[in-house]
Every structure is written in C-alpha cells, then in structure tokens.
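Researcher: Quick test of sequence recovery. Tokens follow.
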C-alpha cells in the first residue's frame, strides 16, 4: 500500500534519511517544520504523521514544542502518529501513552528499522480509515447534491438557506450511512455504538459493574428506563443558563446471565443435530431478538460476553452511580443503535406490560367461533 507520510520536525535535516528510505519504497513523503505543519496537514491529508514533539535542546519536563500540532492532529485530522524524538519516553501526555494509534520511536542509528516496524503495525488500521473516508465522501456528495439544489430553488434568505443545507445535509449523510450495508447483512455486534458518546444512560444501553470482570455476564445490566427520563447536563447551557436534570433518580435495569443458563428454556438442548439446533436458534429466537423473558445480547469482542438479559430479573440502579468512565460503581460500556433500541423496549413491554384480565370462559367462546366457521362452509 502506498501511504502519504508527513514528517514534522524543527530540525528538518534529521528526518531526511528516513524520508528518502520510505520514498524508495514508493511512499509519498513530505517534511514540515512546526510553523507550517497545521496547514500542510489540511492540504496533504497524510495517512501517518511522524512527529517530533520536543524541540531541539528541550528538557524532558518542558512543555512539548509540538503540542499544538499534536492537538490539531488529535482534534481535526486524527490519523496514526509516530512520536519520533530523542527522548520519547519522557513525554507524559496521557493521550500519547494510552492510545494504540500512537507509537514511540527513539531517534538514532537504528531508528529507520523501528520506524518501518511501527508503520507496518498501522497498515490494516490505515486501510480501514481510508475506506471510512471514502464512504463518508460518497455519502457527502449524494446528500448535498440534491439538497443544495432544492435549497436554492426555494425562496429562502441566505441565512435560512445556509442553516437548511447544514442541518438537513448532516441528517441526510447520517441516513445514507445508516442505510448502507457493508458486504450484505449486519453483524450482531454492529448494533452497538462503542465507545458510547454520551455521559448519561439511554434505553438499551449496556452497563457493567466497574470493578467486576468484563467476561462475567452477571456483572452486566441492560437499561430499560426511557432515554428521555435519563438525560442530564454536566454543565449549564450557556444560552439559557439552565442545567437539565434527570426526571428520575434511579434507572430500571435487567440483570444479565450466561446464555447457557437458558438452554433448556429456549429448547435448544432437545436436539444434538447441529444443523437443526442452528435452524431452531435462528428461526425461533434470533430473528425476533428475544424469547419470552429472555433478551439475547450479542457479544462485543473484548468488552461484552455472549449473554442474555432476564426481563423479569430487575433492579434499580442510582443514576448518580453511573458514568461512561471508571469513576463510578457502574460504567456505560456501549449504547445500542436504532432500531435495536426499540427492540429492547418492545421485548420488555411484551414481557411485563400485559393487561391484567379476569378468568374467562374460553370454551364457550371457542365453540361460538367454530360454529361460525361451520356455518360458512
């Protein structure tokens, strides 16, 4: 794969050798100093940035001279980064030390080999990023092409037209991306929005006892309270000076258990024939997403085990004890995308919201219906 590599260094001569090495392998390489880097990043759109965070002669405890460039990459053009400095281990920024898209290589006589190895480790990720960008560009073209034309044909003032193009354009892009199937059918784990965006729970979210093992199903819960009752602001809205509070103090959740606990209840153990077992599982359970009180929860590799939520095994969780990080008793692991969020609500309603009816004489009722069938022959 031919990659676009950008070297950012205050001593540009120090990266000429690695630049020429990668150019010999067919890669498109550029060199920039700190002052010009932000503009070059926007125009060149590199696949990988090789960045010297420390200026020449800087002490380890000094603020990195390349921090502004790093922030621009982090916020506006996120791509794999190789920190290429004389003392990369001295950099204490948590983002640098805690992200798999960032590697450190020490400048020296053997550094080119280490740079090649770091670059190779990013290859599959870069392929995925480029594919996402291609799909986003395609969705943008389709979404804006017709919308912009309609907006200009309508009699709007300039400000209203601009607002319509931006807001409706974003909605159309989102809808186009949602409607696109990659290689056919949706994988079970694609229902998750992971990591979650919001700091508050929503209906269908998967939460876990923070201190518990992520491989233990019993540590997980599925949120059943409607999202509108759980929304709250961490800070006041600067426009209306108000701070939204949740409408409830506790969220209703369903406890989770290993899927194998419900083997007999779902009648999966009645056959030893694997084909019949699979057909039964798909036809009677997975197609509708739940079976009686059992809501099937797909696994998310490394985060959520294969499990089931018991919609009759419920408890209340204080909202104040839930966060999207490790700071509270419960952690929001993943949100659930629509229409799977509605599936959770539907399954719970069918399980727990049936009207209470008196004992009825079904026998005479059935006789009456059968008599009508007989009369119609």
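Model:
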């Amino acid at each position: 794969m031919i990659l676009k590599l950008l070297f950012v260094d205050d001593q540009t001569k120090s990266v000429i050798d690695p630049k020429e090495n990668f150019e010999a392998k067919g890669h498109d390489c550029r060199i920039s100093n700190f002052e010009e880097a932000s503009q070059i990043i926007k125009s060149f759109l590199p696949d990988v940035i090789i960045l010297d965070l420390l200026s020449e002669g800087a002490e380890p405890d000094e603020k990195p001279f390349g921090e502004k460039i790093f922030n621009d990459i982090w916020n506006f053009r996120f791509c794999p980064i190789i920190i290429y400095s004389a003392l990369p281990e001295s950099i204490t920024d948590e983002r640098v030390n805690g992200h798999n898209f960032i590697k450190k290589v020490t400048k020296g006589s053997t550094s080119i080999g280490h740079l090649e190895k770091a670059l190779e480790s990013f290859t599959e990720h870069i392929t995925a990023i480029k594919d996402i960008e291609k799909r986003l560009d395609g969705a943008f073209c389709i979404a804006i092409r017709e919308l912009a034309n309609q907006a200009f044909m309508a009699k709007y003032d300039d400000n209203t037209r601009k607002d319509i193009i931006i807001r409706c354009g974003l909605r159309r892009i989102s809808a186009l991306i949602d409607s696109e199937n990659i290689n056919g059918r949706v994988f079970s784990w694609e229902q998750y929005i992971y990591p979650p965006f919001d700091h508050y729970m929503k209906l269908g979210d998967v939460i876990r006892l923070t201190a518990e093992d992520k491989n233990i199903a019993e540590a997980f819960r599925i949120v059943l309270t409607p999202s509108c009752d759980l929304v709250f602001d961490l800070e006041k809205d600067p426009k209306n000076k108000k701070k939204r509070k949740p409408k409830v103090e506790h969220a209703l959740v369903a406890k989770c258990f290993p899927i194998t606990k419900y083997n007999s209840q779902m009648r999966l153990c009645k056959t030893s024939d694997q084909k019949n077992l699979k057909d039964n599982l798909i036809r009677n359970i997975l197609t509708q997403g739940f079976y009686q009180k059992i809501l099937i929860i797909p696994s998310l590799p490394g985060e959520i085990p294969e499990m089931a939520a018991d919609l009759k095994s419920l408890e209340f969780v204080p909202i104040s004890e839930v966060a999207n990080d490790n700071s509270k008793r419960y952690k929001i692991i993943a949100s659930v995308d629509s229409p799977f969020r509605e599936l959770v609500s539907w399954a719970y309603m069918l399980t727990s919201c049936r009207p209470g009816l008196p004992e009825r004489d079904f026998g005479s009722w059935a006789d009456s219906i059968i008599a009508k069938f007989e009369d119609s022959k």
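The first helix runs from residue 16 to 24.
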